[in-house]
Amino acid sequence: MSLPLVLLHAFPVSSVMYDGVVERLPGVRVIRPDLRGFGTAPEPGGEQPTIDRYADDVAELLDREGVERAVVGGLSMGGYVTMAMLRRHPGRVAGVVLMDTKASADTGEARVNRERIAAAVLQHGTRTLRPMVDTLLGDTTRRERPAIVARVSAWLDAARPRGVAWAQRAMAARPASFDTLRTASAAGVPGAVVVGAEDTLAGEDDARAMAAAFQSFTQVHVIAAAGHLSAVENPDAVAAAVHGVLDTWQDLPRT
Ligand code: MLT
User: pLDDT band for position 1 (50/70/90)?
Assistant: First the structure.
């Protein structure tokens, strides 16, 4: 029996984005929460929006599930939460899979843009997110796989304004995580980085920068014909990367 696996979803979708990956991991206990404000999770309240709060929610969920340690995989915003888990709850994280994400903080311009999106969804609803399908999916998927385009569009339509606005503000406030990755690497945490070759939001440069910080423990998997939602566009490749980390952990000497 392998370690449990936690899968943390991207913005502005929900844990359903991992259906294909989970199908390909028979025998692995997968815990895939909807982050607050998304999918079936309750709306955020008046609390300060931070990625750390999502990470604390995940740690509380692990407590409730009786799971001490798990491999944690996160895609994009889920990756930010994974790095916050490493920072705040390092003892809970046995390994990481960082997908289509980045360890850098936002630029000032990106923060302003996030606040603009937060205000727009609160005022006009989440239909303003519809054009995001073009940046979430790679060129190949958009050209050749209409069923995936339709599925992701439906997920965008289902997003809820308060959850979206809260997430944008939380992401704007996140710190850089390169030191966090260095610390995890020095502690021997195994990890893998996955990136769609056609990802224009968190591309190969971001993946390699994370791998450089994570040093010898990290493998970088560049997935052909996939964009930002690599776990949706190529669940086989993502499942293989997850298996690599679970197997590495299994083989590590125990002290
Ligand atoms: C995501 O897919 O979660 C977003 O692209 C993250 C972000 O906006 O930085």
Answer: low
The answer to whether the CB of 103 is under 6 A from ligand 1 is no
Convert the pLDDT of each residue in 195-250 to its tens digit: 999 999 999 999 999 999 998 567 899 999 999 999 999 999 999 988 888 887 76
Helical packing angle, 161-172 and 108-124, nearest 10°: 170
| Ligand 1 neighbour 76 (Cβ under 6 A) | yes
Name which residue sits closest to atom 9 of ligand 1, judged by CA.
77
Residue 12: cis peptide before it, omega within 30 degrees of 0: yes
- Is there an atom of ligand 1 within 6 Å of 201 CB? yes
Beta strand segments in 122-253, E: 191-196, 218-223
Q: Mind listing the pLDDT tens digit for each residue in 74-116?
A: 999 999 999 999 999 999 999 999 999 999 999 999 999 999 9
Left, alpha or beta for 181 (phi > 0: left; psi -120 to 50: alpha)? alpha
pTM of the shown model: 0.96
Please list, in sequence order, all residues whose beta carbon lies within 8 angstroms of the beta carbon of residue 40, skipping any fewer than 6 positions away.
14, 34
Q: How far is the CA of 100 from the centre of ligand 1 (A)?
A: 9
Alpha-carbon span 37 to 22, nearest angstrom: 22
For residue 107, how far is its CA from the centre of ligand 1 (angstroms)? 14
